[in-house]
Amino acid sequence: MEIAILADSVLARIGKDRADLVRAVQDADGDLARAAASAGVSRARLAEALDYVMALIADYAETSDDAIAVYRRLTESLFLNGEDL
Length: 85
Fold this sequence. Notes:
Blueprint: H1 3-27, H2 32-39, H3 43-60, H4 64-81
Helix pairs in contact: 1-2, 1-3, 1-4, 2-3, 3-4
């Protein structure tokens, strides 16, 4: 399946709250402590959200390269779509 379609499907399933947390991680350059603090959530809550997103990606992606591409496309979509989620 096409990467863009997979990313859109994951994005539709994770919801706005989890999408905001993924965006916070990207904004914090992967620093989970900083991302959790900026999002106003615990690191445990942030980790749960990321685990959920990664599990969805793993369910859809056929290879690890596909999974990486889906995650990249997902994060790009978060910044392109902004508050429209």
